[in-house]
Design brief:
InterPro entries: CusF_Ec, CusF_sf
Bound molecules: copper (II) ion
Radius of gyration: 13 Å
CATH class: Mainly Beta
Number of domains: 1
CATH superfamily: Copper binding periplasmic protein CusF
CATH topology: OB fold (Dihydrolipoamide Acetyltransferase, E2P)
Protein name: Copper-binding protein
Organism: Henriciella pelagia
């Protein structure tokens, strides 16, 4: 049964810092019923877009709001943060980080 939150990896195709939106070419989500596509996401709360650039591979988590749209709760740039991003097993399924 799909829930309200999901996590996926993808690549940023565009960033709108003024409007607080990120367009991501993303893979299938874990946790929610959404397959691979390119789409624009709004951000939750005061999430900032520091450390993000167009073209970055990212791992991110979304939550569905009352209006049915999915907003980004958390987003981590793999080029900027590498193995400090959460859920390494999703990012590096065949090459887990050293413990
Ligand atoms: Cu989507």
């Amino acid at each position: 049964m799909p829930g309200d939150t999901g996590r996926a990896t993808g690549r940023i195709t565009s960033l709108d810092r003024d409007d607080g939106r990120v367009t991501i070419d993303h893979g299938p989500f874990e946790g929610i019923a959404m397959g691979a596509m390119t789409m624009s996401f709004a951000l939750m709360g005061d999430l900032e877009l520091t450390d993000l650039s167009e073209g970055d591979d990212v791992i991110f988590q979304v939550k569905r709001g009352r209006d049915g749209s999915h907003r980004i709760m958390e987003i981590c740039s793999i080029p900027a943060n590498g193995r400090d991003c959460p859920d390494q097993e999703t990012v590096y399924p065949h090459n887990p980080p050293d413990q």
